[in-house]
Specification:
Elements (H helix, E strand, L loop, with lengths): L6 H11 L15 E7 L4 H14 L5 E7 L4 E4 L5 H4 L2 H7 L2 E4 L7 E3 L3 E9 L5 H15 L5 E3 L5 E3 L3 E4 L1 E5 L3 E9 L7 H4 L7 E3 L21 H16 L5 E4 L10 H8 L2 H4 L6 E11 L2 E12 L2 E8 L7 H11 L6 H12 L6 H16 L2
Parallel strand pairs: 1-2, 1-13, 3-4
Antiparallel strand pairs: 2-6, 3-5, 6-11, 7-8, 8-9, 10-11, 12-14, 14-15, 15-16
Helix pairs in contact: 2-8, 5-7, 10-11, 11-12
């Protein structure tokens, strides 16, 4: 499907289109032209870094760009979302599914090799999400005329008026804008609801929530459809619309020579402080049961989290079950650490060594720590 892009051509293209360099008109003869890029990487962080790089470095006054990309399994949350509310983090850790936070708003989505990502880049004044969605619909209709697909007022794509096959998000910069959307071709639809169900018990947050929807793969309607076929069809439609060359240019997000500084962008997107630390302030307030000597006791836990770290913590359990000084020591040491299981487990292991060696106390301590870790 692809033509191999000679490196020297890409280097020339790159230098001509850096912001504040040679105007695009010197390179493109058409007044309205589009460039079609496809990533050779399936790393979600590196592909998100391509979006950041183009947004930060390109002058799009005279050209538009369509970026095609497919990722390995990952959950991607919006810029202002809370991953503890949006995702089943423990299942993701168990399955080895990456978590990423993008720089655009919108809701949480699942990516894998059966999901296609499209990013439409333009200058801000030409930004038009509905136009982009109509291009996708037109391309799909040309492939399979019987598909019943429509765009909603929320800029989603629905199949048969009921099933969501594409979600939308966008970022508007000072001069450049991009609109990106997913398209479910043959994703693991049965894993999606499990991964996109967070632990909302006792969680209070003003972060942007996702809106649940029924989803379906295009493959379920027509098993002959493939991601490559769909991407090719959209590229044809995009090229016709922008009166540009149909050639899909493969790009490697790992190549810091073609995209100076892109590796730093990808590394920053993988940091804990970005993925979790950018979560808006929230709190967890739960009651939990403890079985002690065949009786049920009640415990209470309140945690305030800011920038992904525990800002305040209150642990309330019966003093005859666990000494108050142990609870106080734990809650004081929890303050300031990351709101995550690993740090909490390390902390609890270090603290228990400072208390008398007592099997009964150790058992109760572990029960309490498990209750705390369960909300993380």
């Amino acid at each position: 499907m692809h033509r191999i892009l000679h490196q020297s051509l890409f280097v020339n293209w790159f230098h001509l289109h850096r912001t504040h360099t040679v105007p695009a008109s010197a390179f493109w003869s058409a007044a309205k032209s589009g460039l079609i890029l496809q990533s050779v990487s399936s790393d979600v962080y590196k592909n998100l870094a391509v979006e950041d790089w183009i947004h930060d470095n390109m002058n799009l006054e005279d050209i538009s760009i369509l970026f095609l990309w497919i990722n390995d399994p990952a959950v991607v949350i919006g810029r202002h979302q809370n991953p503890w509310r949006e995702c089943n983090l423990s299942l993701m850790r168990e399955r080895g599914v990456c978590l990423a936070r993008r720089r655009s708003g919108g809701g949480t989505v699942y990516h894998d090799q059966g999901n296609i990502n499209f990013t439409f880049f333009t200058c801000k004044k030409k930004y038009d999400r509905m136009e982009n969605l109509n291009l996708i619909i037109k391309a799909l209709k040309k492939l399979r005329p019987n598909l019943n697909i429509e765009a909603t007022k929320r800029y989603d794509l629905l199949l048969d008026g009921k099933f969501k096959i594409s979600g939308t998000a966008a970022k508007l910069g000072r001069t450049v804008a991009y609109h990106h959307c997913t398209l479910l071709c043959n994703a693991d639809r049965y894993l999606i609801p499990s991964l996109l169900t967070g632990n909302s018990q006792g969680l209070h947050s003003n972060a942007t929530p996702s809106i649940p929807a029924l989803v379906k793969n295009l493959w379920e309607v027509d098993p002959t459809l493939s991601c490559q076929e769909i991407m090719r069809a959209l590229a044809l439609e995009y090229a016709a619309h922008h009166r540009s060359n149909i050639e899909i240019k493969p790009i490697d997000p790992n190549n810091d020579r073609f995209f100076p500084g892109i590796c730093n962008k990808a590394n920053q997107l993988q940091t804990w402080d970005w993925i979790y630390g950018k979560t808006p302030k929230f709190s967890v307030n739960i009651d939990f049961d403890i079985i002690h000597e065949e009786k049920y006791l009640e415990g209470k836990l309140t945690i305030n989290i800011k920038s992904g770290r525990i800002e305040a913590c209150t642990i309330d359990v019966p003093a005859h079950w666990l000494p108050a000084d142990m609870c106080l020591e734990l809650q004081n040491n929890l303050m300031g650490i990351r709101f995550c299981p690993n740090e909490t487990m390390r902390l609890s292991s270090d603290l228990i060594r400072t208390f008398p060696k007592d099997c009964d106390l150790l058992s109760k301590w572990n029960i309490l720590c498990e209750k705390i870790i369960a909300v993380m």
